[in-house]
Amino acid sequence: MNGIESLHAGDTVTFGRDCEVIQIPMGTKITVPKNTEAFVGQTLGGNVTLQIAGMGLVQVPSSQLDAVCKDGQPIAAPVTTATAAADGPVDEKAVWEALKTCYDPEIPVNIVDLGLVYDVQINGNRVDVKMTLTAMGCGMGPVIAMQAKDKLLTCPGVKEADVQIVWDPPWNQNMMSDEAKKRLGLW
User: Fold this and answer.
1) How would CATH label the architecture of 4-74?
2) Which of 6, 28, 79, 169 could be joined to 2 by an S-S link, Cβ 3.0–4.6 Å?
């Protein structure tokens, strides 16, 4: 195994098996056939965004990375079981750090620094998040929300999580952190 960290933008990879991916920006699941060649776009948040001829952009979720091969070797081991979060109180800092590992597959900035997370409420072992998207028509919204929920459920103490997409207030570039603006060249 090469590891996801061995991938760089523009690298060529192939699929070692049929693989279910998410088509960007529609958010629909499609199957990429074994031996399909693709080019790496970005590798953020544990997922990989690829460009595939005839299919466009796709996101390979972290649970499917064993299907992606570089130099003939899978970049990850097959996922066997999810690790349950540890018992105890929910750590708000850990919740925010988990959300910072979620990325829009088309934008190389996490959802927190993009200013997409509007509210986080912790009630016992439950975390409720209200977030938005950069555009109302983004088909990836439910996918990003599910990824955020999955990341929250790995935080110590979190037993339940809910991520809602809201549209008020409407998102704008002023909501981004200074770091995000620098990363996107908006300074």
Assistant:
1) Roll (2.30)
2) 6
3 state SS of 83: coil
pLDDT digits (tens, 9 = 90+) for 49-90: 999 999 999 999 888 999 999 999 999 988 765 555 567 899
Q: Report helix, strand or coil for 9.
A: coil
Cα–Cα distance for residue pair 103/112, rounded to 1 Å: 9
Chain centroid offset of residue 152 CA: 12
Reported CATH class of domain 92-183 = alpha beta
What span, in angstroms and rounded, lies between the C-alpha atoms of 160 and 90? 11
Given a contact cutoff of 8 angstroms between Cβ atoms, the answer to whether 67 and 15 are in contact is yes
All CATH 3.30.300.130 domain ranges of the chain, comma separated, are: 92-183
Locate tokens 């200074």: which residue? 178
Question: Quick one: DSSP state of residue 70?
Answer: E
pTM higher than 0.85, yes or no? no
Torsion of CA 23, 83, 154, 182, to 10 degrees: -50
Reading the block at residue 120, the tokens are 């986080």
Residue in this structure with the two tokens 């996107």, named with its chain if needed = 184
